[in-house]
Design a protein that fits this description.
By secondary structure, the chain is an alpha/beta fold. The chain contains eleven helices and twelve strands.
Amino acid sequence: MKKIDAHLHLAKVVAGYCRRGELRAIGGGKAQWGSGDVFQLFPTNGDYGDENFTAEQALKIMDRNDVERAVLMNGSMYGFQNIYHEELLEKYPDRFCPSCEVDPFATNHMKALERFLWEKKFHLVKFEISSGGGLMGCHDPFPLSGPRMMEIYKLIEQHKGVVALDVGDMDMDSHQTLGIMRIADRCPDLKIVVCHLLAPAREKKREWLAELQILKQANIWFDIAAMPKIMKPDVYPYPETCDYLKSAADVVTPKKLMWGTDAPFAATQDTYEHLTDYLEKTGVFTEEEKADIFYNNAKSVYFPE
């Protein structure tokens, strides 16, 4: 079955920054925050680098797992990869949809964004919003649908582009479901992707399903990247994760879900192979639904003809 990894991270140089300070690779696949905390960022199975994860390394893994294309998400943990993504946009246009990202509190962020969209021809803008590892860990909480951000969404809408939002866990200030709804209402021609399926919590499943119902709108999609990690201690082939995915599909329909891995960090918990094929081990989706989740939905959102 053809696949598009709708949520993959590359890092030519690890230059992260969030509430724990800066993040730098220290070898052996490990990275250290400015706070002193050390963790395993890249798997150590030989498929990934000791201090980075490049397009060429990713393509070998993708080809081995029949993944035709990948969507490259910026992320605060890895640091902005805009310049590297510019290179990949030109070098591998048929394999990758790279994202760009700006800090909306930077003085000239609109000028930078205009350059990415019009001059460099980016189709996707990603915002790591989360209080845990994103913009609301670096800045005071701010409204997702406030004037500062709406100016950005309108520019992306004008470009006929896509905005991807990682709003963090359900108990974070960044988790603004009503804000996403307002963005969708005010920018009807903007494609919006909510990352990690709103990061469900077991003790809040009813509230999570209600949030999905609120966001059941024509211009909103969801990637399911990192769901096995979010649903720990669920283990491969992740039956509980699949049950949650089926519950989500019952609300928003399978045509609104896009498979993704969130590798390389998610692949430190389990292999890329398992993150790729677990949906094929379950009977909760039909072959037609799996074709949409694995490929068709992401192609229509990220790789329009």
